[in-house]
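Continuing the batch. This is chain 6 of the set; chains 1 through 5 are on the previous pages. Same settings as before, nothing changed between runs. Recording input and output for traceability.
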Amino acid sequence: MDIFQLLSSKVQGDRKRILTGMFLVVLMLAAMAVSACSSDDDSSAGSLTIYSGRSETLIDPIIQQFKNATGIDVKVKYAGTAALAATIREEGGNTPADLFFAQDPGGLGAIEDLFTPLSGDLLNLVPEWARSSDGTWVGISGRARTLVYNNETLSEADLPEDISGLTDPKWKGRLGWAPTNGSFQAMVTAMRATWGEEPTRQWLEGVQENDPKIYSNNTTQVAASASGEIDIGMVNHYYLHRFLAEEGDSFGARNYHPSAGGPGALIMVSGAGILSTADNKENAEKFLEFMLSLVGQQYFASQTFEYPLIDGVATPLGLTSLEDINHPNITPRDMADLEGTQALLRDIGIIP
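Output for chain 6:
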């Protein structure tokens, strides 16, 4: 084994030890939370129904910690953020949902008139950019849009300064995207807010002319980038870090935050709001408080590789700091018109 292999092995081992240490911190904090709540009568803790646009694989572990810590019986309905927002609006006052946990601000904005205002103490746990301006929902974790690329065939110098460059014919047959994915649609919503409707349409049509491979989600795009099936994918930052944690630095893909900024460097939040029709508002508030506690925030930082929204949380080795990303100044209200984005995508023929 030469010196470079030794160094690579050490870095990979250090990464795993750091992540393991973070996870142990999460478990310790969770155990303290369970102990603090152990005197509660679980039979009287009540219930909570969550509609989650976040995937079960990402958030079920922290939901289980919340259940164990509080004794609250949590029922979760999983589906896409946009689909659940439409379902909640259709169900109206008859919805069984107490809380909507959305993948992005667009889904929250689509039904923010159905939320009940949150307390100032809860809202003030996160930065102003990570909550709604009218106090109806709060961010839970931060996520950055990024380009994932095959680092065996490309370097950052080969990549466009912003994603407008992906319409260049040289990328024909080399791109991937997931147009039905909520985060992709949130990015397009940000485009419409910053570039305008017609330039956004032109970008979508330009990328479509480059014959991008269509994927159902971000994970498959990252895997396809590493395998050489595509050269560039359009994803959220944390999916790559999950692969790196499992496979080490030999994994054949890396993230690129466009240097010129723009919608391709968007910082989004996942977030949640409590329905005004909720039967279990107090338990829904407890859930939000738990997600924004050190327990919840350390889970998102160390296990899903997302950005924590409170201070005092350790982040994984190699995660680009938010300060180093040239992200656009997009407000949550700018991200609210999800229906307009979906209408545009349908009109062009990108989604059914």
